[in-house]
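Support request from a user on the community tier.

User writes: "When I paste my structure tokens into the form, the page sometimes reloads and wipes my input. The last time it worked, I copied everything first. Here is what I submitted, just in case something in the input itself triggers the reload:"
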């Protein structure tokens, strides 16, 4: 499936990319966020939720595992599996109950949940790059491919508007 990479020079660019992605995401989507400690995963989710209309504070779910939001009548769960001792913690925490075909799951550290984590529609990988970050968006389902296509230019524009030196590294 298709993927695209954009350079994010500063945290505001990461938030703006999250806001852009909002326009492709639909109820039921599973979005995984990969990247090491401090890569910018929560920052991207903050931009995404703000664009969806969430007005409350978006805290990292590192200690709570899941933080839930309902902007504009949507059901959004932000998960962070970093502190899992074993993949079966997914079951023990009752996270399967969150998968219902209409709630949107945004999952940090999905690798910690192993095979219990549902297959993503969209995979977002963040990596350190100089003082900024490189974000790679990968569509993993036909609906995500369509969504990514629909915002193709928007994703590029959003990063470009903040950073003229944006590098699109997609093949
Ligand atoms: N494009 C960027 N350039 C520079 N710094 C950034 C960028 N995006 C985010 N940051 C900064 O990186 C720091 C860590 O961000 P964040 O908490 O979102 O990371 P995380 O991937 O969620 O980490 P964790 O794995 O610990 O949950 C924050 O200070 C944030 O402002
Ligand atoms: Mg985080």
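"...and here is what came back when it finally went through:"
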């Amino acid at each position: 499936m298709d993927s695209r990479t954009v350079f994010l020079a500063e945290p505001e660019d990461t938030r703006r990319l999250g806001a852009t992605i909002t326009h492709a995401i639909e109820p039921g989507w599973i979005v995984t966020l990969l990247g090491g400690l401090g890569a910018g995963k929560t920052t991207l989710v903050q931009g995404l939720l703000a664009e969806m209309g969430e007005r409350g504070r978006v805290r990292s779910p590192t200690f709570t595992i899941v933080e839930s939001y309902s902007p504009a009548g949507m059901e959004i769960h932000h998960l962070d599996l970093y502190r899992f001792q074993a993949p079966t913690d997914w079951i023990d925490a009752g996270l399967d109950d969150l998968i219902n075909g209409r709630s949107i799951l945004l999952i940090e550290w999905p690798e910690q949940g192993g095979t219990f984590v549902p297959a993503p529609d969209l995979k977002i990988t963040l990596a350190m790059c100089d003082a900024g970050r490189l974000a790679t968006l990968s569509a993993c389902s036909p609906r995500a491919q369509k969504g990514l296509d629909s915002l193709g230019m928007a994703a590029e524009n959003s990063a470009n508007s903040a950073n003229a030196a944006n590098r699109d590294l997609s093949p």
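Agent notes: The reload is a front-end session timeout and is unrelated to the input. The chain has five helices and seven strands. Helices lie at 11-22, 41-52, 89-92, 142-150, 152-162. Escalated to web team.
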